[in-house]
Specification:
InterPro entries: HTH_MarR-typ, MarR/SlyA-like, WH-like_DNA-bd_sf, WH_DNA-bd_sf. With 147 residues, the chain is mainly alpha-helical. It has helices spanning 8-29, 37-45, 53-60, 64-76, 98-122, 124-135, and strands at residues 80-85, 88-96. The protein has a two-stranded antiparallel ribbon.
Length: 147
């Protein structure tokens, strides 16, 4: 019996895991504090001026409790801090500390090198086509009936 072809969500998940594994291993090898994929995702979802935990959760596609847990571990690592939200007395903003900003810049630089490795392996045309395809507007997710 032949193995069924992997669908696009499976392929995209595997590609994301490849990047995550390369980034986290490279950062650990460089002597940075180890973080999880979920904790790294917090940095990708942060605005420069700060972001609420609720907004982080929405952007990350996780529950507020999951985002809150990741944020508080990173606060304990002194990579994030909480500040008052000037727009709402009830809200707190999460933003990187100087150390968190330094680590995030290093991670961004590391990702650029990892993308370069991918370009060497599959070619610039393939990477450019992949970027174009993934940034093309897809519209709202469709609601389809099961066949």
């Amino acid at each position: 019996m032949a193995t069924p072809a992997r669908n696009l969500p499976q392929l995209l998940t595997e590609a994301k895991r490849w990047f995550d594994d390369a980034l986290l291993a490279s950062m650990r090898a460089a002597g940075e504090q180890p973080v999880t994929v979920g904790q790294a995702a917090v940095f990708a979802a942060l605005d420069e001026g700060g972001t609420t935990v609720s907004e982080l959760a929405r952007r990350m596609g996780v529950t507020r409790q999951t985002a809150h847990q990741a944020v508080h571990v990173l606060i304990g690592m002194r990579m994030l801090e909480q500040t008052s939200d000037p727009a709402s007395a009830r809200s707190r903003l999460i933003r990187p500390t100087a150390e968190g900003a330094r680590v995030h810049r290093r991670a961004q630089d590391t990702l650029a090198v990892i993308e370069g490795v991918l370009t060497e392996r599959i070619g610039a045309d393939a990477v450019d086509a992949l970027r174009r395809a993934l940034t093309a507007p897809m519209g709202e997710p469709p609601l389809v009936e099961a066949p």
